[in-house]
What does this fold into?
Amino acid sequence: MANTPGEEELLRRFGVDVYLAPQNMFVDETMFHPIVDRPRTYDAIYNAQLVPIKRHELARLVPSCAYVTKLFGRWSPHLKKAQLHKFVHGLPRGHVIINEIEADNVVFMDHVQVNEAMASAHVGLCLSKLEGAMYASIEYLLAGLPVVSTRSKGGRDTFFHPDTTLIVDDNPRAVQEGVAAMKARAIPADFTRSTTLRLMAIERERFNTFIDGLRGNQVARTDQRWSFNYCPKLAQLRKISDFEAQLSQKFTV
It folds into this structure.
């Protein structure tokens, strides 16, 4: 499965049997949703790992910004501590980290906590230049936040819509102005969410048709969104042999 048309084309050129399946359509919309009547105290929020590719510095001119973050798991405690110290002490006035902070790390936040954090901001930020689907990009939208994003490669823009997303240049002033513009629009959270869900539904039905074709027939759905057993983000931890046995059983019935 390819996340972008560019990846699909590249794989086809190498003779790979490939299907375009944008990764963010597998995010479970029940995990992220608008929280009504919650005061939005921050102009923006940026949910991103604390690594250079995320380009946190592009947000520095936003008047107030909240951060949900984590440190790269394979880093040594010394490197984590140094990176965290540098980031915390370089935060502009009005910028805060939502996570609890330990001596050399930040405390992980589950999806409920992240959803609550997003409800405290007007706009979600996407500032990297190159990465994959960036789950946070669609989590913002499902939580009702419009998005300000820099131009990017990797597929996070698949479910962006001009009514809910603004693409800006790669500089702090453009990000600041973009946040101000999207905040001023005061887009209703339900509109942002429903617009995103419509785009997701189109891709999901196309994928369901593909799965039905592999199976050779349609089956009754226990989850109306999917024609197969769904797990959030397709995440299951099992042995490969277990998956093979499961697939063999389904396709021989």
Observations:
- The chain has a mean pLDDT of 92.
- The radius of gyration is 20 Å.
